[in-house]
Amino acid sequence: MKRIGVLLGGLSSERDISLRTGEAVVEALRGRGHDVVPVYVDRDLDRALRAAPIDVAFLALHGRYGEDGCVQGLLECMGIPYTGSGVLSSALAMDKLKAKELFRLHNVPTAPYYAIEGSLTNAELETQHGSFGFPVVVKPRREGSSIGISRANSFEELRVAVDAARKHDDGVLVERYIKGREVHVGILNGRVLGAIEVVPKRPMFDFQAKYTKGMTEYFYPARLAPTRYQGVLRLAERAAQSLGCTGAVRVDMIVTEGENEYVLEVNTTPGLTPTSLLPKIAAGAGIDFASLCEEILSTARLTYGVAKSNAARSAVAEA
Ligand SMILES: Nc1ncnc2c1ncn2[C@@H]1O[C@H](COP(=O)(O)OP(=O)(O)O)[C@@H](O)[C@H]1O
Ligand SMILES: [Mg+2]
């Protein structure tokens, strides 16, 4: 029997969410009789992996180093197959600027935006903002869980929002605020499962709305006319394909009152906590939580085809 390591924790600001995701996965896979060990990730991941040799890595890490290709690259080098997207797709999806550039290349509609790198004086910010207008949503380039995101309705608020986002990333995106309904689409191993609509009791789907029970209403399937619903699913599929994402994927979108849909982002290690969206979507599609975890597990592989061999493993162990 293969020993599965569920990698959880990590170094990002989403560490606590990752712990919740990882613990839920460990319990579910053990319940199905798998040989599972939690691998708590901190600065010394390769030591943690040497201490608890595993055959397969189930990635329950969110954010930097865990969702952005870094851990994926280490596992490639160690020859340990891992769940989810490969190195390049993980990195592209985590970087909202690069993802948006690819969306545009592939005609995937996304909110108009501009990017800021480094610190700007008020005058520089004013010049860069130019006639972009308000309201806008300001977000760090590489974060998750709505961390560092805020809405700005005026230049003064923009200044505050940019400074807040820069606490998390040197790179910041300023996007046009899209008024509409928020819909998230789940994709599992290339199969589009469905779309859930989220209605937060707060102005945006922020950290509290995401992780506090009762702060958000969920509608599955999303309340859209059948043809539009299908269009939303196809658009999410194209968004994931434009970045080359595989395994479990969640695509965040906003659909307007009119005809338009905008892709916000593609998540390559979607949360699997009790309040997370992918498990809700999967449940709606008839897939219970343990089966979802097993299906994700079945995608574990190496993108670059480095054969996992005992020789490679012992070379790592001796190093
Ligand atoms: N351009 C936008 N217009 C309106 N709301 C937005 C926009 N961008 C983000 N949001 C809100 O902020 C939330 C988080 O944004 P998102 O881009 O998905 O980043 P994260 O990686 O933190 O989830 C969204 O779920 C949505 O509620
Ligand atoms: Mg999101």
Give me a quick take on this structure.
The protein is 38% helix and 23% strand.
How big is the Rg?
20 Å
| Helix fraction by DSSP (H/I, runs of at least 4) | 25-40%
Q: Could you name the CATH topology of the largest domain?
A: D-amino Acid Aminotransferase, Chain A, domain 1
Give the helix tally: 12
CATH superfamily of the largest domain, by name, is ATP-grasp fold, B domain
CATH class value of the largest domain: Alpha Beta
Low-confidence stretches: none
Give the termini distance in whole angstroms: 27 Å
Helix/strand order: EHEHEHHHEHEEHEEEHEHEEHHH
Number of extended strands: 12
User: In terms of structural class, how would the helical and strand content be classed?
Assistant: alpha+beta
Major beta sheet, strand line-up: 10-9-8-11-12
Share of residues in strands: 15-25%
